[in-house]
Amino acid sequence: MILAVVELLTSKAKWSKVRILIQERWMMGLYGLRKFTGPEPQGAEHSTTGEVQPTGVGQEPVVRSDHEQWEYHSLVRMPEELLEGEGTRFRQDRKLPDGSLQSTYQYQSAIYHEAAFCSNGVSHVSLFDRHDRRVPDFSYAKYGKLVPENRPFKVSRYLPGTTLSLYGNVENTAGNIGHWMIDGLARLFLALRHHDLASIDHVLVPKLKYGFQRESLLELGIPGHKIVEIDVLQCVRCERLLVTTAPRGYSSSNTPGWLIDGFRESLLPVKSTIATGKRIYISRRDAGSRKFVNEEEIIACLEKFGFEAVEMSSYDFNGKVALFAQAEMIVGLTGAGLTNLMLCRSDASVLELFPASYVTYFYTSIACYLGMDYQYLVFDNDSMLSSMNKYYGNLSLDTSVLTEKISSMLDQQKSLKAG
């Protein structure tokens, strides 16, 4: 117990977040006292106080334009057990009597004129209108008391023309591929419903930490010169800022079908032409948390069935896409490594491994939407750290149980092919 507490408290990620929150409060205090000197970057005139004066001072400008709204209904049949505990947390997700998951999303997009944008990467991603008031509908808040209602600090950069925000939520700042693609990058598909990419001058994203992030932007047709990175605690003002609501809405663990279809239509035409029939095991040896202590035993067990262990960090973006597009069968511990299930063939099989402390249907919804042969295995774990935080812990999986499950899946496949 003591070791678990120490490990949690000494996490570098945790202390980094605390440091950022303290730094933000300090910057807010200085900004409140007007201790910053010099005018802020702006396309219009500046006041003598150094505060931003929006274009057309003295007139009541159009604050928001091109406002669009639409609704999306999702209905996916998936294993009922996975909808029991976790499903009660999400207000947009509803379990139907037949075991299906029903979700309804209300989407919006809008252009805000002279809007400011910033995030601390911990508690909020915030859009502020030209009067520096926070716009909740197009912002993200993780902890209510740590969210500024007005622009918290000085603008450091002005972007003329039209800027599209693909920033997503605070998890996007860590470079997690799941949040990057589903909560951030997918906003492109929402924006392109009513806007043309050629009309967008800049694309706003978090500070890019991994090569696959830039590669994915380029692969989706966004030129490198349009990509604008914004670091935590940096504030930019945009002449016109195009924003959308979150792809997964305000409270859902479902992955909407339009999002899956968008990535498949954009990325698969070339990569899916060669089906190698590979069996892959997504290892988390390269992950920062939630790993198997008996990983080598698990790999040895799966190799007997023709599986190859892979670490997603060793592949560039196109390599990740091709790996999943060509796979026949995938095994992996629940986590961001399974995000690319959305790029699998519909006749592929997947076995998702869940520690009892962390059972979710986030990736299940992807596989079931595509009609894949989806199966899961929930295993007990005695990790004290996992009991304190479901995203952490050193896990152990009985390989005899895994052997039995894989054998059963392969027998089913043979029966289906024979029939």
Provide a descriptive summary of the structure in words:
- The chain is 28% helix and 25% strand.
- The protein has 419 residues and is an alpha/beta fold.
- Strand 7, helix 5 and strand 8 form a beta-alpha-beta unit.
- Helix 7 runs parallel beside helix 11.
- The longest helix has 21 residues.
- The radius of gyration is 23 Å and the shape is globular.
- The N terminus is likely disordered.
Main beta-sheet annotation: 9 strands, mixed
Rg, please?
23 Å
Oligomer: single chain
> Percentage of helical residues?
25-40%
Spell out the helices and strands N to C: HHEEEEEEHHEHEEHEEHEHEEHEHEH
**Strand tally:** 16
Distance between the termini: 53 Å
Binned strand content: 25-35%
Strand pairing plus helix content: what structural class? alpha/beta
| Average residue pLDDT | 85
Number of helices: 11
Choose one word for the global shape.
globular
- Would you identify the regions where 5 or more consecutive residues have pLDDT less than 50? 1-10, 44-62
